[in-house]
């Protein structure tokens, strides 16, 4: 079995800003949502064998809250940048409503929901560029995007899933909890 949990509300979710790879904290509501997710999982009365999450603090914090609710101690949480949310490029940090006024609702919809359309790329001097975050220092620079389409996000996540998580499911590992998977095409 595979349990997928999206992180709780972040400060930028509340402010309707494009978040993507920016490392933004959970709000109090987001912490409560994570706790409620843990309670729902606890009610299933199951043992979870593996924990995976992205490099993003909001996802890591969500996972830590869930494992605390489940009273799981000394469990390794596997953090992988490949599980990060979609990179919104130059839109990162900008308010979605303001961008709709500036570029039009149709253009913003295309950036957000088109399979092959990338938002404008993030410049290297952008304050939230991943290369400025120490977490990404061991990742080859060529693998760090400046923007992602839904398709390129899929192409980043799915090989990781197929290599690292799918084999666990085939081995009949009981439960895997993955936090902050915003997008998966098809069903698993």
Describe the protein in words.
- With 188 residues, the chain is α/β, with parallel strands linked by helices.
- Helix content is 38%, strand content 8%.
- The protein has a four-stranded parallel sheet.
- The longest helix is centred in the last third of the chain and has 21 residues.
- 30% of the residues are buried.
Please outline what is shown here.
38% of the residues lie in helices and 8% in strands. With 188 residues, the chain is α/β, with parallel strands linked by helices.
Itemize the secondary structure elements and their pairings.
Elements: E1 2-5, H1 11-14, H2 28-43, E2 50-53, H3 57-69, E3 77-79, H4 96-103, H5 105-113, H6 150-170, E4 176-179
Parallel strand pairs: 1-4, 2-3, 2-4
Helix pairs in contact: 2-3, 4-5
User: Could you say which structural class the secondary elements and strand pairing correspond to?
Assistant: alpha/beta
Unreliable segments (pLDDT under 50, ≥5 consecutive)? 181-188
Oligomer: single chain
Helical segment tally? 6
Terminal-residue CA separation: 10 Å
Order of H and E elements: EHHEHEHHHE
**Strand content of the residues, in percent?**
5-15%
Average pLDDT, to the nearest integer?
Answer: 90
**What is the rounded Rg?**
17 Å
Major sheet:
4 strands, parallel
Major β-sheet strand ordering: 1-4-2-3
Shape: globular
The total count of strands amounts to 4
Helix content percent band: 25-40%
